[in-house]
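DM from R.C. (forwarded with permission)

"hey, sorry to bug you on a friday — could you get me a structure for this? deadline for the figure draft is monday and I only need the backbone to look sensible"
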Amino acid sequence: MKIAITLTMMVAGNTFMTAAWYWHLRKGATHNMALPLIVLTSWGIALLEYSIMVPANRLGFSAGLSAPQLKVAQEVITLCVFVPFAILYLGEKWRTDYLWAFLCLVGAVYFANRHAF
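My reply, with the result:
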């Protein structure tokens, strides 16, 4: 159960981080905003991410996940959150390269966990 909660928190935290890093790239979203205001807004959003991710990593570690396992999980989650964000919010087009990247991450998950079981 702790691992499921950890992964759910990681998805939530990564959603905030993706927004913090990329929200301002949307066409017309910030064309009149000064860069310092964009940075401060992103920092505010990132604070939410840190408030979720630090406890998520601590919980996952206490549940028996190693630091490499947590990091690889985070990378998979990053791609799973970023691709829909890029397509739905930023207007990027779907590319099969996203699928190939995901399959490479499946390999990373395997190698990070193969000695765990």
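R.C.: lifesaver. Residues 8 and 56 are 9 Å apart (CA to CA).
me: no worries. The helical segments are 2-22, 35-62, 67-88, 96-113.
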